[in-house]
UniProtKB/TrEMBL annotation:
Organismal lineage: Bacteria, Bacillati, Actinomycetota, Actinomycetes, Kitasatosporales
Homology family: Belongs to the glycosyl hydrolase 43 family.
Protein name per UniProt: Glycoside hydrolase
Pathway: Glycan metabolism; L-arabinan degradation
Species this protein is from: Streptomyces pseudovenezuelae
Lineage: superkingdom: Bacteria
Keyword Protease: no
Pfam family of the protein (one): Glyco_hydro_43
Keywords assigned by UniProt, alphabetized: Glycosidase, Hydrolase
Length: 342
């Protein structure tokens, strides 16, 4: 493949995809973690592919590098980047971690697990730019946006009907055993948090996670994972949250618990961020997840996610809403090059 030849989704390393459909230029911007093998730029950070039709993509441009941020608290990770426009500027959220900055090991979780997992600083940072193409500069190099004593990841932006911005994030199962989704208020300019975190739901609230485990087989010690929140307000006012987790099953050989990555969603019964949240069945299985919704320039609701978890590629689905119910219409294999049963 030459430098000028368009790229296609099957050729594009792509984990935790996030699309910004820019109406001004009618260009889709697809953000993911930097991969030097395709960007040609070394270092931890964020890169962006661009397309006018979701089929032909430019080679990626790097828009953020941790090495360029003076005094930053962590230089590893740069997971789950996403970009949001607010008040004429663009805000990048991406998750960093630093294994050299340990966190206190918490007491046993709600399952009474006998083991302790090592914890270290991990959380979403906020960076800002005047352009979708960066460069993005971190707002606070001293620590993550959510409270630093919490091991968190995958922060996303939600603005409630009153105009109050929130960061919604996953609280790591490594610290909680039963992973949670939480939210914390942000200042109007998104540069700092206000108040304390609010618990939204636990991974184990999705009862279908363990329905493939036979009765009598203990599963309490297996982690319950929360990943990749993204909020979506439907035309009739319902509030949805896409998120990912692992659906658990028992391996036939030795009875150990394993699980496949799935894309699922939840619906707020009140229509407010604070819920209560009702868990729905998975949308896509087959080691797929960390999806988000966006509209094409023609108005079609689309979901993009990655599959498989290792060596991931982007997969596109046309979606349909029926009130608060979200459904897959079809996978766009003409764009993503693969058909895998759901």
């Amino acid at each position: 493949m030459t430098e000028t030849e368009p790229m296609r989704l099957p050729d594009m390393p792509l984990h935790d995809p996030f699309v910004v459909a820019d109406d001004l230029t009618r260009t889709y911007h697809l953000y993911t973690s930097n991969d030097p093998s395709v960007s040609g730029v070394d270092g931890t950070g964020t890169m962006v592919y661009r397309s006018h039709d979701l089929r032909d993509w430019t080679r990626p441009a790097v828009v953020f590098r941790t090495e360029d941020q003076q005094g930053i608290w962590a230089t590893d990770g740069a997971w789950a980047p996403e970009v949001h426009q607010r008040d004429g500027r663009y805000y990048l959220f991406t998750t960093l971690h630093n294994t050299d900055r340990p966190l206190p090991v918490p007491p046993p979780g709600r399952w009474g697990t006998p083991f302790r997992l090592p914890n270290h600083m991990r959380g979403t940072i906020t960076a800002v730019s005047d352009s979708l193409l960066g460069p993005f500069t971190v707002v606070d190099p001293s620590g993550p946006t959510p409270p630093g004593h919490l091991m968190t990841l995958d922060g996303t932006l939600y603005v409630d009907p009153s105009g109050q911005p929130w960061m919604v994030y996953a609280h790591e199962w490594l610290q909680t055993i039963d992973g949670t989704m939480e939210a914390i208020r942000l200042a109007p300019d998104l540069t700092r948090t206000v108040g304390d975190p609010v618990l939204l739901f636990k991974a184990s609230d999705a009862s279908w996670i363990t329905e493939q485990i036979p009765a009598g087989v203990p599963h309490q010690l297996a982690p319950y994972v929360t990943d990749g929140p993204q909020l979506h307000r439907t035309p009739d006012g319902a509030l949805l949250m896409l998120w990912s987790t692992y659906e658990k099953n028992v391996a036939a050989e030795d009875g150990t618990i394993s699980g496949g990555y799935v894309q699922t969603y939840a619906v707020s019964e009140s229509g407010d961020l604070t819920g209560p949240w009702r868990q729905r069945r998975p949308l896509v299985r087959q080691d797929s997840g960390h999806g988000m919704l966006f509209h094409t320039f023609e108005g079609q609701l689309m979901m993009i996610l990655h599959r498989p978890f290792e060596n991931a590629r982007g997969k596109l689905y046309e979606m349909e809403l029926d009130g608060p119910d979200l459904r897959v219409l079809r996978q766009r294999t003409d764009l993503d090059g693969e058909l895998v049963p759901r």
